[in-house]
Write a structure and sequence with these properties.
alpha+beta; Beta Polymerase, domain 2; 4 strands; 22% strand
Length: 104
């Protein structure tokens, strides 16, 4: 992964942790994780929260997008509950198969 992208992601995760308690994991996935990004690629980040209700997910998504815009407009946050992350949906399987855990 490009060093600049790594710094950008870590800045974003730090900002999230200051503003939102309960985040358990952050996983880069998609084109940046696979090293086949293009100039117009999003930086897809799965954000696993311990407790996340479906009714709260939209509001959280908006808040995470606002935080992302402070760091890099290419960041595309994907909030996921811990329960949903343990499912076998194709989306989750892809994140687990190709994702890179972000340690910060």
């Amino acid at each position: 992964m490009d060093k600049g992208i790594n710094i950008t992601i870590n800045q974003y995760i730090s900002l999230i942790k200051k503003n939102h308690k309960g985040i358990k994991r952050a996983i880069l996935f998609g084109s940046y994780a696979k090293n086949n990004e293009r100039l117009d690629s999003d930086i897809d980040i799965a954000l696993i929260f311990d407790k996340l209700n479906d009714s709260d997910k939209f509001d959280l998504q908006v808040q995470l997008m606002l935080l992302a815009s402070q760091i890099d407009s290419r960041i595309e946050p994907h909030p996921i509950s811990k329960k949903d992350f343990n499912s076998n949906s194709p989306f989750i399987i892809e994140i687990k198969r190709t994702g890179i855990e972000i340690k910060s």
